[in-house]
């Protein structure tokens, strides 16, 4: 799997190098950028489709072109800095394969992400990178596996992460549209890994549409495992303003801690994020700014820390 990821990065570099060597016709900076990014997207997608069709051929003789799909494809780079922690950078990749030689509700998934969050299935809002918390490339790992969707509400997954360490997940998701403007969603993920043994992550969110372009959301998540006596919790309250064309401004209050710990809230803060396309509709950039008040232990006083981050994401 690491070889596949290296091949994707090599594809990106080759596309840029190839564009830099073409001088047959004069081009403007904008047209050169368009060509480089379009070719990069096409080559990354072609590499992933090639991988998907190869995996699909293991299960039968039906051509991948007959119902095969690659969806949710993303290749991204980001950098984050918080005053009380070292600056970190990361590369994230994910894709989902629909394989015609498997049953109609089965799929293959691959990616690269935080080794802990892969197993516990944390909501994206509470990922370390989304909260400008310390992230380290050493904590990222490749993962892959097979999944099956049952009646659109249950996902079963069996996967492997770095070092061929197996894990299993069963996710149940149920939304309620309680009114035209109000929506509640419940998500329960039960997981098993050698390190955590049996565990679960419970997430509950409430969304209210204030207008066609402005919404409010309250999200809560709790994670518990057999291998740890700690029950970690996270909460987010935020507003989200859409300006159309994938341009979104969000302002969130984030809180987190461990139930029963001497410090009830070990970290809280405010975070603003702006995201928008930076090239057509498939290259998305974002900028984050936050201010946090961490208190790691009762022996320390609560500190203050500014945080900034930026990232770019290529959809394919």
Task: List the keywords.
single chain, 316 residues, alpha+beta, Porin, 3 helices, globular, disordered N terminus
Explain this structure to me?
The chain has helices at 2-20, 29-56, 115-120, and strands at residues 69-82, 85-98, 106-114, 140-150, 154-161, 165-177, 182-193, 197-209, 214-225, 231-242, 248-258, 267-279, 283-294, 305-315. It is of the alpha+beta class. The model is unreliable at 1-6 and 15-26 (pLDDT under 50). A hairpin with a 3-residue loop joins strand 7 (182-193) and strand 8 (197-209). The chain has a 14-stranded antiparallel beta barrel. 17% of the residues lie in helices and 52% in strands. The radius of gyration is 21 Å and the shape is globular. The two termini are 19 Å apart. The chain contains three helices and 14 strands. It has one domain: monomeric porin ompg (Porin). The longest helix is centred in the N-terminal third of the chain and has 28 residues, at 29-56.
Strand arrangement within the widest β-sheet reads: 1-2-3-4-5-6-7-8-9-10-11-12-13-14
CATH architecture assignment name: Beta Barrel
Find the structural class using helix and strand composition: alpha+beta
The total strand number stands at: 14
Query: What multimeric state do the chains show?
Result: single chain
Q: The CATH topology, please?
A: Porin
Order of helices and strands: HHEEEHEEEEEEEEEEE
The total number of structural domains is 1
| Total number of helices | 3
Mean pLDDT across every amino acid position? 84
Rg value:
21 Å
């Amino acid at each position: 799997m690491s070889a596949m990821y290296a091949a994707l990065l090599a594809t990106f570099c080759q596309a840029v190098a190839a564009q830099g060597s073409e001088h047959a016709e004069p081009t403007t900076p904008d047209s050169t950028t368009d060509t480089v990014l379009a070719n990069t997207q096409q080559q990354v997608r072609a590499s992933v489709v090639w991988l998907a069709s190869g995996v699909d051929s293991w299960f039968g003789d039906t051509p991948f072109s007959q119902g095969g799909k690659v969806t949710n494809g993303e290749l991204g780079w980001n950098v984050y800095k918080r005053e009380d922690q070292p600056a970190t950078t990361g590369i994230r990749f994910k894709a989902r394969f629909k394989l015609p030689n498997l049953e109609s509700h089965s799929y293959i998934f691959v990616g690269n992400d935080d080794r802990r969050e892969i197993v516990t299935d944390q909501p994206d809002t509470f990922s370390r990178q989304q909260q400008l918390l310390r992230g380290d490339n050493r904590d990222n790992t490749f993962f892959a596996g097979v999944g099956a969707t049952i009646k659109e509400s249950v996902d079963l997954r069996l996967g492997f992460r770095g070092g061929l360490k197996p894990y299993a997940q069963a996710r149940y998701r149920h939304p309620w549209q309680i009114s035209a403007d109000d929506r509640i969603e419940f998500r329960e993920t039960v997981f098993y890994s050698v390190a955590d043994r049996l565990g679960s992550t419970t997430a509950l969110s409430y969304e209210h549409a204030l207008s066609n372009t402005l919404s409010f959301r309250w999200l809560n998540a709790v994670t518990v495992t057999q291998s740890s006596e700690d029950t970690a919790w996270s909460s987010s309250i935020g507003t989200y303003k859409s300006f159309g064309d994938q341009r979104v401004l969000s302002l969130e209050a984030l809180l987190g801690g461990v139930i029963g710990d001497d410090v009830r809230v070990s970290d809280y803060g405010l975070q603003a994020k702006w995201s928008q396309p930076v090239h057509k509709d498939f290259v998305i950039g974002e900028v984050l700014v936050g201010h946090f008040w961490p208190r790691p232990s009762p022996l320390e006083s609560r500190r203050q820390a500014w945080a900034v981050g930026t990232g770019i994401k290529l959809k394919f």
